């Protein structure tokens, strides 16, 4: 019988470091990032950086009449491939935070705290610290505490310079101030809140277009006014604080719902926040498409139906407001420096003209049996 100790002795001792995991590099990364993380901590965050669990004092919830906790988790998809190719890592955190906290604010919840997770083939302390600093800076913009995180080294599973990021956040909203389909009525108006660019969705399509065209990320693109790589790495706009400000000023009588325009595009995400029996009419000519979207379409000859079902096309968030609240919401958005415009309106569905499968008609997305969106007209381009 062979005993484990009878195995041939390796000529070189195997350590955790030679197996590809450098715990000292991980410790250095924490040292480099901890000041940025601490900067997101207010009086409600207990303990320091590096604990087994983040602690958040929730005693203030006793002041709520009926608090509901909201939670969300997400990543940034293949946009990390652009960051890795350019060796620029301090912006990807805005993409992560935006994808997570802006799903929470859709229901009117204030995002309270967030955690992150980074998996990488090799810990380069400066790179990991850059990613986390970006996450912390975006949390500060959102008014959210970054209470913890984890960096995992996965040699052999990921290439040395590859990484992926994910995060999760928790927020709170009063039950009687919850936003959503239940508040939406026929006659309500859609308000578009402009995106900063592609945000963090559809990058598999965009990268395929760029690859087929043979374009390099360093290519200067006149219509973009910068290099292709700079455009593709433009950080996601973080809407949370501005959306909460709009909701609080308008009140639930004035602002009824938000839709975060992420995977699936504008129509599919707006349809999710409409109750069954209602349709939102959206005029494609109501705004001018930012150049990056027409560039992707033309460069790859992407069918428009595929483009609008994948990318945000310049609209990152949509607010559904009462008609008499429209001017106030638009004015407040201008005060906040947030590009906003009237996008469309909500009406009762017509069983004769609102037919599933008809051109521009979108319903039943993400498993939600709610309302629908009817897209009309043609997009305006520069």
TrEMBL record:
Q: Where in the cell is it found?
A: Cytoplasm
Q: Indicate whether Ion transport appears among the record's keywords.
A: no
One Gene Ontology cellular component: cytosol
Annotated GO molecular function terms are:
ATP binding; phosphoribosylamine-glycine ligase activity; phosphoribosylformylglycinamidine cyclo-ligase activity
Q: Which residues form the PurM-like N-terminal domain?
A: 68-173
Source superkingdom: Bacteria
UniProt keyword list: ATP-binding, Cytoplasm, Ligase, Nucleotide-binding, Purine biosynthesis
Primary enzyme class = ligase
- Name a biological process GO annotation: 'de novo' IMP biosynthetic process
This protein's pathway reads: Purine metabolism; IMP biosynthesis via de novo pathway; 5-amino-1-(5-phospho-D-ribosyl)imidazole from N(2)-formyl-N(1)-(5-phospho-D-ribosyl)glycinamide: step 2/2
This enzyme catalyses: 2-formamido-N(1)-(5-O-phospho-beta-D-ribosyl)acetamidine + ATP = 5-amino-1-(5-phospho-beta-D-ribosyl)imidazole + ADP + phosphate + H(+)
Q: Please give the name of this protein.
A: Phosphoribosylformylglycinamidine cyclo-ligase
Q: Which organism is it from?
A: Cellulomonas gilvus (strain ATCC 13127 / NRRL B-14078)
User: Organism classification, top ranks?
Assistant: Bacteria, Bacillati, Actinomycetota, Actinomycetes, Micrococcales
